[in-house]
Write a structure and sequence with these properties.
Elements: E1 2-7, H1 11-22, E2 27-31, H2 37-42, H3 44-60, H4 78-102, E3 106-109, E4 112-117, E5 122-126, E6 129-138, E7 142-144, H5 152-157, E8 161-162, H6 164-167, E9 176-180, H7 184-196, E10 199-203, H8 215-228, E11 231-233, E12 236-242, E13 245-250, E14 253-258, E15 261-264, E16 268-270, E17 284-285, E18 288-289, E19 302-304, H9 315-329, E20 343-345, E21 351-355, H10 358-363, E22 368-374, H11 379-384, E23 391-397, E24 403-409, H12 413-425, H13 430-435, H14 445-450
Parallel strand pairs: 1-2, 1-6, 2-3, 6-19, 8-15, 9-10, 9-15, 10-11
Antiparallel strand pairs: 4-5, 5-6, 7-16, 12-13, 13-14, 17-18, 20-21, 21-24, 22-23, 23-24
Bound molecules: 1,4-dihydronicotinamide adenine dinucleotide (NAI).
Length: 452
């Protein structure tokens, strides 16, 4: 009998297992693929290894000339990039397995299904074996959405249409790549494959890229990638795919473009089917498990964390949700707060934000003030980003001067946003930000400068 059984070994599952086992709970993780889940195996980490190679290559093939550095015969060896990515992934996956072993958490590699209740808790079946546990954590994650677009399922089966899973293991760089959906995955992959030499076209249904990103930053990113050679069709809805072409509707017209491969990155959906939720009556809404701020489902003793609850679909949210769930199981006081979850798009330049944008703050009825500053106010940024157009925007409430959100474009926004996240979480005022001493010279100083 386990104290806790966890379905899924991704960021939510493995983090929960670490915390639970470290606190003396007899813990079981059941994972059908590999520990680390989508994030480690076919998402966050693999994409970052590819993007790092692309950044070095961009400098080598001409980007370095702005800094007086010339390289000849620069070449990107995609096969090697993929091999290195596999090595990084393997190291990290082994690291998780080692940590769980150290904490004495059991891991079973099989597909798990909840089968019902037992005298003291719940039963789960995996590869014909039944496991029993007092508590359950559902952490089955999410999968790429493949909507009923004409021809999409056949194109996917034929290997012409790809999701994040397949594209990160492509053996060769396609001559042309049509990316359906200009959200996070679409833009990160446009970034790599454009640098690697593909003719990249992004087809996006909305009139802007990067989803909820601040509109000004989204427009700057669009200009940057257009200048780099990516073609964008905005306000364009994909309606059909065949092996070799993508068709979309734009301004009442039907357009068909030819492409060697297509990436489908139009969102993800929680994995809640065929895991036996109905056997114990776990409630779902729009395909995701319903959870409260303590990550409890409607069934006492059953919790859900990570993408499966559809709340934020980010690995860093999953870690925290997992900790909240286990702390609550252990009787500790804890709750999940979604108001300060940073969001990053690892394009080059990076886009990062936390809290409200000007648009969302206004929509919520705040009387909003915005301060913004070019990143070129930072000496370090200027030294390292020749011709860079980075900006930093701070959104705050008029009167109280409470910080509501920070958005920035420019490297290394993904690292600087950590400081802003802490301030938003603490509900700091503008004056608090003005008093923070940032190391000099750093790009991060621009955050403080923006507040004056
Ligand atoms: P997304 O929700 O970011 O973007 C999907 C885009 O597809 C939207 O802009 C939508 O308007 C568009 N779209 C939908 N249907 C369409 C159609 N028929 N034709 C044309 N465009 C269409 O979803 P994405 O990029 O697939 O990412 C999924 C999730 O993965 C995200 O929610 C994010 O949480 C996570 N992720 C996070 C990353 C990060 O934090 N850096 C990186 C990659 C993924």
């Amino acid at each position: 009998m386990y104290d806790l059984m966890i379905l899924g070994g991704g960021p939510a599952g493995y983090r929960a297992a670490e915390v639970a086992a470290a606190n003396g709970m007899k813990t079981l993780v059941i994972e059908k693929r590999a520990l680390g889940g989508v994030c480690l195996n076919e998402g966050c980490i693999p994409s970052k290894t590819l993007l790092h190679s692309a950044k070095i290559y961009d400098y080598a093939k001409g980007g370095g000339e702005k800094y007086g550095v010339y390289a000849e015969n620069a070449r990107l060896d995609h096969a090697y990039v993929i091999k290195r990515k596999d090595k990084v992934v393997k190291t990290l996956v082994q690291g998780i397995a080692y940590t769980l072993k150290n904490h004495k958490a059991d891991v079973v590699y099989a597909e798990a299904k909840i089968t019902g209740r037992s005298a003291e808790g719940f039963t789960v079946e995996a590869e014909g074996k039944t496991y029993e546990g007092k508590k359950l954590l559902i952490a089955t994650g999410s999968e790429a959405l493949l909507p009923p677009i004409n021809g999409l399922h056949d194109a996917y089966k034929a290997g012409y249409a790809l999701t994040n899973r397949e594209i990160l293991s492509l053996e060769k760089v396609p001559a042309s790549l049509c990316i359906i959906g200009g959200g996070v995955i679409g833009l990160e992959m446009a970034s790599y494959f454009c640098s690697a030499g593909s003719k990249v076209t992004v087809v996006e249904m909305m009139n802007k890229i990067a989803g909820p990103t601040d509109s000004e930053i989204s427009a700057l990113l669009l200009d940057h990638y257009k200048a780099k050679g990516v073609t964008f069709h905005l306000g364009a809805k994909v309606t059909a795919l065949t092996d070799g072409s993508v068709t979309f509707e734009k301004d009442g017209e039907t357009v068909t473009i030819e492409t060697e491969k297509a990436l489908v990155s139009i969102g993800r959906r929680a994995v809640t089917k065929e895991i036996g939720l109905e056997s114990i009556g776990v409630l779902t809404e729009r395909g995701a498990v319903v959870t409260d701020e303590q990550m409890k489902t409607n069934v006492p003793g059953v919790f859900a964390a990570g993408d499966v609850n559809g709340k934020s679909m980010l690995a860093h949210t999953a870690y925290r949700e997992a900790e909240v769930a286990v702390n609550v199981m252990l009787g500790k006081k804890d709750r999940m707060d979604y108001s300060a979850v940073p969001a990053v798009i690892y394009t080059n330049p990076e886009s990062a934000s936390v809290g409200e944008t000007e648009e969302t703050a206004k929509a919520k009825g705040y009387d909003v003030e915005v301060k913004k500053l070019s990143m070129n106010y930072s000496g370090r940024y200027l030294a390292e980003n020749e011709g860079g157009k980075g900006i930093c925007k701070v959104v705050y409430e008029k009167g109280t001067e409470r910080l509501l959100g920070v958005a920035m474009l420019g490297n290394p926004a993904s690292e600087i946003i950590v400081a802003a996240t802490e301030m938003i979480a603490r509900e700091d005022r503008m004056v608090d930000l003005q008093k923070v001493i940032f190391p000099h010279p750093t790009v991060g100083e621009v955050l403080r400068e923006t507040a004056f």
